[in-house]
Design goal:
single chain; mainly alpha; 8 helices; globular
Length: 263
């Protein structure tokens, strides 16, 4: 039976974009709700590493955009990035409307806001909303800059090497874009959301640089590790989608009549 490449291409794109958007939603909710202490010792030195829990699934988004860039082209990758931005806005709207509609929690008459409990804490939803607002605001700016940087750098390296050396464009694009992303997220999270666990009695910039370096090192290690899976996935998906080496799915290819075999 002749494979239906059009159906396969639509299905794979749906899976990649779905994983991308689902992961993006998850990391924005988790965001800065908790910071992990991943400090370690090496060569007699104590290396501090503080990573927001929302960073853990973030590298998956770059794997998805790299695969979409490689298989479907820059235009389709940019469309997914823009959809991610719209999803961020949708999440913020839902969090906002969820706090504005009346609930069953007692209201503090002096502020008009939900009353604090005995531990001087807001109801769980409002604490989560405050943290998520800070995380989403930071990630929206960083996300746009980093993801567009990732897509542009990916295709820059692809043109420069004439389609060879997938490892170079995969790592080169991600490592550069992660500098942009990590720096923007940390600075916005601190100066706008005031949500980083910093010591107020110590100089702030060394602490911010620790957060930036920690997040970047974590993402860099994951980016280097995912080179193998990227090669395996591209090597398997190209023939599965009926693509020759260094060939991309075009808009007309994906939505016109089913194709009967590789070009």
């Amino acid at each position: 039976m002749t494979p239906n490449y059009t159906q396969r291409r639509q299905r794979v794109f749906l899976i990649l974009s779905g994983v991308f958007l689902g992961t993006l939603s998850l990391l924005n909710i988790l965001g800065i709700s908790r910071f992990l202490d991943l400090s370690f010792s090496a060569f007699g030195l104590n290396i501090p590493m503080a990573v927001a829990v929302g960073v853990l699934p973030y590298p998956v988004t770059f794997i998805c955009t790299d695969l979409i860039s490689e298989l479907y082209g820059r235009k389709r990758a940019n469309e997914v990035v823009l959809m991610g931005l719209a999803l961020n806005a949708w999440i913020m709207f839902l969090l906002w409307i969820g706090g504005e509609l009346p609930g069953f929690e007692p209201i503090d008459p002096s502020t008009g806001s939900p009353a604090l409990d005995a531990a001087s804490r807001s109801p769980v939803f409002f604490e989560m909303r405050t943290l998520a607002f800070g995380a989403v605001t930071a990630s929206m700016f960083a996300y746009l800059a980093a993801q567009f940087c990732d897509v542009q750098m990916f295709h820059f390296w692809k043109r420069l090497t004439n389609g060879r050396h997938l490892w170079l464009r995969n790592n080169g694009s991600t490592l550069v874009s992660q500098i942009v992303d990590t720096t923007a997220v940390i600075l916005i999270t601190h100066f706008y959301a005031n949500a980083l666990p910093v010591a107020v009695n110590e100089p702030i910039w060394p602490q911010l640089m620790t957060f930036i370096a920690s997040g970047y090192i974590f993402k860099m290690l994951v980016a280097l590790i995912d080179t193998g899976p990227i090669y395996l996935l591209v090597g398997w998906l190209q023939p599965y989608l009926g693509l020759a080496s260094d060939e991309e799915v075009g808009d007309s290819d994906e939505y016109d009549a089913p194709r009967t075999g590789p070009d």
